[in-house]
Amino acid sequence: MLFKQQVLLRQKLFVLGSLAIGSLLYLVARVGSLDRLQPLCPIDGRFGPRGQDEIPLRALQFKRGLLHEFRKGNATKEQIRLHNLVQQLPKAIIIGVRKGGTRALLEMLNLHPSVVKASQEIHFFDNDENYAKGTEWYRKKMPFSYPHQITIEKSPAYFITEEVPERIYKMNSSIKLLIIVREPTTRAISDYTQVLEGKERKNKTYYKFEKLAIDPNTCEVNTKYKAVRTSIYTKHLERWLKYFPIEQFHIVDGDRLITEPLPELQLVEKFLNLPPRISQYNLYFNATRGFYCLRFNIVFNKCLAGSKGRIHPEVDTSVITKLRKFFHPFNQKFYQITGRTFNWP
Q: Model confidence over 185-217: pLDDT tens digits?
């Protein structure tokens, strides 16, 4: 009899223990499922009124899921109508610079709950054929979003294409423009490296960087070489300033975005008049990849494509010195115009 009572007691304790562990795991799962992009004060989150630019965390998860389903073609038009989804023209554009970190910047800004990104480069303003299709065609290339959100697209070719500033101005004269730059010589070599990799994939040969960057006839910097010309930031910016005041531009430090992304992203949040939502939780350093990856929540992480962070070929130091000396006066003017100084040699 005593033995049976002991067995029953053990069974009860086992059941109670299982229930306790199950409840604990359930609570952990529930907490983990919350989107941590909006760290709210507990009092504000529970009792304070929400602003137009804020969404409850669970609702945010659902809404992002709905946007994803629509992009895959799984959401119905009725769902889109009920949830007030729209395709909006961008209120901010990352206009350049090529190999400055435009993709990284766009992906990192997409961490913010009030930002929706166009996944592909649209090339509307720099492509005559696309531009001829009109603004409505451009708008329909944008992702679905909620009215309070801002859509951002990036096409690095915009920065260096002559017709683009006027075309964007005609669409929206008050649009916000983001330019991400790196040290000009490093950017030029990165530009070359991407083209070189493309040639190698097609089993084609390509000139060495030194032969392209330096004119063999004059032994001076070859300004006809596109990778060099793109790095003369001030020349391109001056063309944009004919249409937009400097206050509508924000310059992002692409080199710092690699090593210390959060301060740069916080500056962009401020420029776009967004509430601060991106935190250190959303960014973690991946030692294997050698740069920061993105954490949207406890479940979903994302690193940039493997093509990012290519290893640059070795370049003759005398050529690097000549390029840096060439870019120096242009850099000084760029600092003066933008009001932002970089520690470029």
A: 999 999 999 999 988 888 888 999 999 999 999
Give the C-alpha separation, 225 to 227, whole Å.
6
- The answer to whether 207 is a known ligand-binding residue is no
Does the pTM of the predicted model rise above 0.85? no
Taking CA 276 as the corner, what is the angle to CA 271 and CA 280, rounded to the nearest 5 degrees? 115
DSSP assignment string, 172-216: -TT-EEEEEE--HHHHHHHHHHHHHHHHHHTT-----HHHHHB-T
99 is catalytic: yes
Cα–Cα distance list, 312 to 286, 309, 339 (Å): 20, 9, 30
Say whether 98 counts as a known binding-site residue: no
Q: Which of 4, 63, 77, 99 is catalytic?
A: 99
Token pair, residue 285, equals: 């350093």
Q: Where are the domains of the chain?
A: 70-183+232-311
Give 295-323 as a DSSP string: ESSSS-EE---TTTTPPPPP--HHHHHHH
Report whether CATH 3.40.50.10490 matches the domain 70-183+232-311. no
Q: Are 269 and 277 in contact (CB under 8 A)?
A: yes
Residue type, 127: N
Q: Is 92 helix (H, G, I), strand (E, B) or coil?
A: strand
Phi, psi angle pair for 148, to nearest 5°: -80, -15
